């Protein structure tokens, strides 16, 4: 990676707030920063399928600033390329202002803004004292953000979680903005909402912030994006400027594929279904073609996890493919991913060779409503990408389409044949 020259001249004026937002195209559909999962190859796929803005994976500021091996692995020379990977925001976790600035200086010529992670709720963030565990140290948060704001030639942004109290959340948001954050991403869950106690993100709190903060404040909403039409619903309910998706994008990168004005709840025609819920063989092939032409350690290290997520419902029916993915290791080559892609294509092709199969390739509305708006969950065939449903109070309320009885019988026959 080419390191920026600290002595290089800065732009005449650094854009702020809404002016900065408009300068990067007023994006509406955003790929979230994720640990090891929003790397270059995935960003390329997501942009091809409609994403307007992407964040890098969460990068550890101290390691990025001090360890060349980590830096080169996580940020390749093509990351932030002006023709293929912009607009781009680089996210860091940190708890030392000077170290954060040192890391940010290394990327400021390769991105449009630097983001501070104030949202990670995992135990590793607790131990490292970063992410959402900085919520208890507002003075440090101010120093981290303001140091970047005062010393970078590009804007600083921040991603936060909410508090149980609306009023405290508002005070917190104002504090972050006062330190110099030019865009505020609000994840509508508290720090405690994770794992089996994840629960639903609270869009009403984001709406409250939108109503209480100045109109020029740019707000991105994060949480509860399962289907493409949820983007429009979220924008309407929260009043946010844009919607960010993490898991929704990971399990179905086509979630951003259409404009947010798209209003049909369920795609009834073949073209719409294939566009919004691609067959796993087709989306896997598209991802593989990008992966094989994308250099950099981060993209190839992340690929195994991407396959598990893209194929999650499919793998429950075709466990031999699961075993093939599980066998991938650090020394595996692109040929291993090619063979898995071809195997999945072969399986799906055989499914569709059955003349009667077409009548089963449909998407149906569930009788379980998602929320008071009347939106409903969908039954999606396992050979198509679909959302992952996070636990609510320890329960997964709805997990997508259950295997058809015919599928169960076919799988039992296949198991018996393998025994023979």
Automatic annotation (TrEMBL):
Keywords for this protein: Flavoprotein, FMN, mRNA processing, NAD, NADP, Oxidoreductase, tRNA processing
Enzyme class: oxidoreductase
Coiled coil: none
EC number(s) stated in the UniProt entry for this protein: 1.3.1.88
Keyword Endoplasmic reticulum: no
Biased composition (Basic and acidic residues): 402-420
Name the UniProt record assigns to this protein: tRNA-dihydrouridine(16/17) synthase [NAD(P)(+)]
Positions of the UniProt region annotated as Disordered: 400-420
Top-level lineage group: Eukaryota
Catalysed reactions listed for this entry: 5,6-dihydrouridine(16) in tRNA + NADP(+) = uridine(16) in tRNA + NADPH + H(+); 5,6-dihydrouridine(17) in tRNA + NAD(+) = uridine(17) in tRNA + NADH + H(+); a 5,6-dihydrouridine in mRNA + NADP(+) = a uridine in mRNA + NADPH + H(+); a 5,6-dihydrouridine in mRNA + NAD(+) = a uridine in mRNA + NADH + H(+)
Cofactor: FMN
Domain DUS-like FMN-binding: 31-330
Keyword Secreted among record annotations: no
GO molecular function, one term: flavin adenine dinucleotide binding
Gene3D superfamilies: Aldolase class I
Family to which this protein belongs: Belongs to the Dus family. Dus1 subfamily.
Biological process per Gene Ontology, one example term: mRNA processing
């Amino acid at each position: 990676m080419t390191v920026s020259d600290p002595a290089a001249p800065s732009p005449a004026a650094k854009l702020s707030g809404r002016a900065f937002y408009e300068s990067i195209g007023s994006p509406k559909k955003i790929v979230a920063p994720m640990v090891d999962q929003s790397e270059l190859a995935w960003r390329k796929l997501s942009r091809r399928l409609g994403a307007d803005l992407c964040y890098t994976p969460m990068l550890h500021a101290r390691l990025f600033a001090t360890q060349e091996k980590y830096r080169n692995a996580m940020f390749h020379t093509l990351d932030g390329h002006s023709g293929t990977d912009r607009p781009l925001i680089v996210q860091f976790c940190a708890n030392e202002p000077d170290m954060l600035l040192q890391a940010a200086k290394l990327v400021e010529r390769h991105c449009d803004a630097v983001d501070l992670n104030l949202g990670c709720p995992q135990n590793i963030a607790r131990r490292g004292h970063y992410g959402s565990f900085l919520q208890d140290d507002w003075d440090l948060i101010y120093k981290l953000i303001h140091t970047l704001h005062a010393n970078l030639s590009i804007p600083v942004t921040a991603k936060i979680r909410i508090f149980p109290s609306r009023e405290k959340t508002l005070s917190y948001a104002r504090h972050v903005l006062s330190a110099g954050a030019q865009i505020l991403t609000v994840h509508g869950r508290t720090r405690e909402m994770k794992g089996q106690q994840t629960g639903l993100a609270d869009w009403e709190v984001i709406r409250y912030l939108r109503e209480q903060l100045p109109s020029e404040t740019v707000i991105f909403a994060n949480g509860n994006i399962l289907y493409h039409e949820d983007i429009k619903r979220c924008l309407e309910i929260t009043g946010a400027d844009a919607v960010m998706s993490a898991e929704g994008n990971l399990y179905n990168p086509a979630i951003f594929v259409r404009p947010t004005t798209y209003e049909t709840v369920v795609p009834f025609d073949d073209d719409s279904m294939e566009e919004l819920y691609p067959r796993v063989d087709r989306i896997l092939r598209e991802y593989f073609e990008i992966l094989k032409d994308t250099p950099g350690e981060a993209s190839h290290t992340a690929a195994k996890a991407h396959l598990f997520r893209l194929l999650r419902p499919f793998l429950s029916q075709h466990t031999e493919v699961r075993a093939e993915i599980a066998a991938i290791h650090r020394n595996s080559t692109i040929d291993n991913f090619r063979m898995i892609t071809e195997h999945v294509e072969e399986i799906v092709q055989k499914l569709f060779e059955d003349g009667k199969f077409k009548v089963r390739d449909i998407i149906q509305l569930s009788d379980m409503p998602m929320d008071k708006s009347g939106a409903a969950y969908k039954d999606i065939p396992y050979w198509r990408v679909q959302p992952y449903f996070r636990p609510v109070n320890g329960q997964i309320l709805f997990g997508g389409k259950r295997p058809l009885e015919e599928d169960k019988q076919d799988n039992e026959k296949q198991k018996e044949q393998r025994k023979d």
